[in-house]
Amino acid sequence: MNDQNKQLLSGDEAIALGALHAGVSLGAGYPGTPSTEILEAFAEYGGQAQWSPNEKVALEVAIGAAFGGARALCTMKHVGLNVASDALFTAAYTGVSGALVVVSADDPGMASSQNEQDNRRYAVAAGLPMLEPSDSQEAYDFTLAAMELSERWKIPVLLRVTTRVCHSYTVVQPRPAAGPVRQGSFERDIKTRVMIPAYARPAHRRLRQKLAEMEVWNETSSFNKVVKGGKLLGIITSGISFMHVREAAPDASVLKLGFTHPLPMKKIEAFVKSVDRCIVIEEGDPFLVEAIRAAGLRVEGKAEMYRFGELDVPRVRRILNYDLTPETPKPPGKPPQLCDACQYRIVFESLRKRDCIVAGDIGCYTLGVLQPFEAIDSCVCMGASLGVGLGMRHVLPPDQAKRVVSVIGDSTFVHSGITGLVEMVYNPPATGHVLIILDNSTTAMTGHQEHPGTGRKLNHEPTNKFVLEDLARALGLKRVFVIEPRFGSQEFDELLDDCLKRNELSVIIARRPCILIAKQLKAYEKRDEPRCECDQKGANVVQSN
Amino acid sequence: MNPVVNVTRKEPMSSKVTNVVLAGLGGQGVLKGTDILAVAALRAGFDVKKSEIKGMSQRGGSVTGDVRFGAEVFSPMVPAGEADFLVVLEPTQVTPNQHLLRPGGVIINPEAVEADLLPNKRSLNVALLGALSAHLPIPEDVWLAALREGFAETFFADNQQAFLIGRRAQRAATTA
Questions:
Q1: Does A515 contact chain B (CB < 8 Å)?
Q2: Nearest by CB: A337 against B60, B73, B99
Q3: Nearest to residue A172, comparing CAs of A150, A148, A144?
Q4: How far apart are CA B34 and CA B23, in angstroms?
Q5: Which partner from A10, A351, A409, B107 sits 20 to 30 angstroms from A237, CA to CA?
Q6: A360, A407 in Cβ contact below 8 A?
Q7: Which residue of B has its CA nearest to A37?
Q8: ipTM of this predicted complex?
């Protein structure tokens, strides 16, 4: 082995490098911890990567690329797959012509998420093959293998990773790149890709047939490995849990599952029978243990208390020792907070003083829920601020309804607030409504990614800009205000008061670039400034006078 | 505040996994510090894993990064009570992380270097890495190469100086 090629890569970077070496033509996604760095790294390595407005669009773009015969990568965090799931379920029926790998980055323990859903359930629900790497080397190898599997079986493959795989750096020995990016080429295949009921019925049968074939194939695949140990204790595990298990129980025999849907049940049965005590150790839901028990095999699972949060070496030891005593809570660290000079502080202070009922959303500004503001009353999912705020306005008595405000960030608004705004126009509450879009010109919480409203692409190069206030006005809204909140100024307070007292629909766009990247944004603006008319094209012509 | 404690530990580290936790607040360079340490350990021939939690912690909250190295490392996370070294960039972060340290483990806190000597206040993370380096089986030239790899040319000189200040201060303290 050539040690010189060894690299210390995060799981995210390893997926990106695997995609590059697999000749992926297009990577599409929406930022979300812990998946964000995959596409950033892919672009940095020279791949073609893009942020889409949301995960559903990203997946649709990736499906299109795969229909066109190319290899495509689509990345998102676990909750992003909820948004993309409409496309996912039917793409399982249509299958793909090139290759399509969908990365779901789950966040057990919720380091930076609103829930800890276990997306392994999606593989079963949609009927997709699923791979689960345990470290960066496997993240790299499995990405390459997932592309090959996808192409071989003509089916999207789910690459399921978790926070500790994405954000841990481990040693990777890359292989030589597979070759150049393949050009797409269209071949008409109407009955496979047009899911009218008459064509979808046989497509469903084809999907089940593929899964049955893959199950047989997986019985002898190299994704599932046995680490020979003692006969007394056998552990079945997958993903990051494998690493904790190896450390917590170095003498145990271990069946490490890398291809976790459809499961190689014969291989599992042989392993279960080879040991005296067999226990399944997995993070999150009892996914493996339920499937193995449903196949009639006797295995232990973890106690319910270990369903919550991440596993680690001490917790695996506790599970193995049947330890049900309460765990010592981690000493509290310093919680995150809004930056001192953040514009959102002005807005939340204003909302707090007026005792507004605030339907919040997902982003930095969710921190408005903490002290000293405590000025957010709900946060459900991306875009929910609009619908939730409107729903409350519809049912609350007028004195309360008139205090309801929806608050959403610019990137989140583009992601899934637009349809909420259409709802506001279409079904206006009797008391009207107030929407505040906190526009800091970036996707701040995930590390300052671009979005359609910034007018720059993933690689920060200029592109067409989506202007929020233009959209609001195009929807017929009369009261659309753009304001820069300033410390020491009453301007924002006065505008908010005026909007709250009317029974009308108002949109306030509170616009001020995030202070953490203000310098960088200025540099981009300067770079993209039109120098003269002659080097301008299309709609962005600026008159020189 | 905890002084630099218990520097008597001198067991051979090549056969077992060495566990280091860096702790501080968002923006202090905890993750840059773990980057440098992990690369140095890799270049010194060890298996290495490094784990960090990003996301909400970026907004000024507590940040920790784990680095583990040895012949073979499995879990990327340092188990509570098993850290050999706890490097703390901000005094308030000792208490929330003390439980990570094993009995007899070493805390390296900002007092390990004289802040006034640093060419740049922001190099504290690297200066404390220098202090840590006095305890680890990684040659100095490997450390300096890792620093060169980790910093742009304009920042390298200051960080090299900070590293050496921390390294010498700790060596003086341990041999005193």
A1: no
A2: B60
A3: A144
A4: 10
A5: A10
A6: yes
A7: B54
A8: 0.91
